[in-house]
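SECTION: protein entry
WANTED: fold as C-alpha cells:
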Amino acid sequence: MWLLRLASRFLNAPTIHNRADPDSCKLWPNNPGKFQLTANPINSFNHWLAPKPPAPRASRIASFTPDSNPLFLCSIRNVTVKDDVRPVGHLVSEERYGRRIARRLSGVGWDFSDADADRQSIHSFHSYPAKFIPEIPRAFIRELSPPAGTIVFDPFCGCGTTLVEAQAAGYASVGVDVNPIGCLITSVKTTPLPLTFTSEAESCLNRAREMAAMPLPKIPNLAHWFRRDVTQALSALRATIHDVRNRRVQQALEAVFSSIVVRVSNQDSDTRYAAVTKAMSAARVFDAFNRAAQSLAAIAIRTKPNAARATIINRSIFDVRASEIFGDVGLVVTSPPYPNAYEYWLYHKYRMWWLGYDPLAVKANEIGARAHFFSGRRHEQDFHAQMSKLFALLSAIARKKTYCCFVIGDSKIHGEVVDNCKHVQSAAQIHGFKLVFKADREINPHRKSFNLHHARIKREHVLVWQR
C-alpha cells in the first residue's frame, strides 16, 4: 500500500528535469529503487523498476527495465525521478519481467498481413527480394526498447532494413553482409543524400548520351543477357559515374545504376533467373536511370541530416572480429540466409559485374547458395557450425541481458525438409543464450520467392533469446 501511495504522490507531481550525469547515479543494493548521486556502481540486484507502458522511445532518457544496469536518474514523459526518491513505477522481479516481455511479443501480429509497401519510404529504393519487411525490426525495437546509448546490430543486414528502422528510432547501428550490392544499398539508405546529387545525376546522364561507342566490358555471357545498344548505354553511364569526385554522390549514383540493371537486361525479373525478350533500347536505359535518380532524390528527403550513425561492414560475418563492432550492442535483429533457399549472389551477379565486384567470391562465402548443397560440399551440420560461430561473436559483443531476435525459415535439401530453427536454437544454447520467445509467422502468399521448386517457404519462425 505504501508503494501505491508513493506512486500516486509522484504521478501528480510536476515534471522536474534533472541534468545530473547518468554515470554518477547508482542504485544502492540495500534500498532498491532509491538513487544516490555519489556511490560505487553495482552490477546485480534482486529487483528492477519497470515503466508503465508505453515504454519511452530511444533518446537520452533511459527506461526502467532489468537491462538498465545500473539504473539511471531520468525522467519519463510527465513523471520525474529525483535524488533519493523511489521512481514512479513498481518493483518487478527478473522472472516476472521476462514473462511480461513474452506477453508483449505475443501480442504482436507477426504475420503483418495488412502491411502495405510504402512507395514513398526509403525502404522502397532498389529491389532486394527476400528482404526483411520493415514492420519486423520496427516491432522488435519498439517492444524491447534497447537501453539508450547502445547500438542495434544486424549480422546479415542485406539491404539495410534493420539499420533504417534503428535510425528512425534514434539508435546507432552496425550491419554486416557479404553481398556488396546489399551493403551499397544500405549505405545509401542510411546516409543523407548530398545536395549536389540531382545536378550530378543530370550531368552524368547528359554526358553519357553524348559519348561515342564504348569498349565492351569483360562480363561473362554479356551478349546473352544484354542487347548491344543497352550494353553501350550502361557502359557510358558507368564511365560518367566513375568520374564523379564526391564519393557519397558516386555511391548514390552507383546504387541508382544497380537498381536498373536487371530491369534493362534480358533477365525476366529479380525473382526469376531466365532470359526473355524485352523491348529495350539505349533511350529506355537512360530514361530508367533518370527516373530512378529522381525517385531516390524524392524519398531521400525523409532521411534526417543528423540521423544516428549506421556502420556497414562488407565481409562475411564469420570473418568479423569483436573489436570491429564499435559501441555497446543493446539489441540484435537479423534474419540469416536459409541453406538452399535464396541465392543472393545469382540474382545480383550482373549488378556486381557491372560495378566491378566479384560475384563468384560472394557465392563462395554465401550461406544459402544452392550450389553448395546440391554439390554435396555443404550439409545442414555446416549451418549449425556457422550459427555456433555467430553466437560466439554475439556473446563477445553484446551486453548482458541483450535480446537477440532472429527470423528464420526451414529449408528443403534433396527433397528433405531441414529444421533450421533447431540448429539455431542449439547453437544459441551452447553459448549461454536463453530462449524467451518463439512464434511462427505466415509469409504473404503473394510475395515472390526464389527457387520455387527447390525450397518454397510458406512459414518463418520468430525467435528471441536473451544473453
User: Anything to note?
Assistant: The first helix runs from residue 2 to 11.
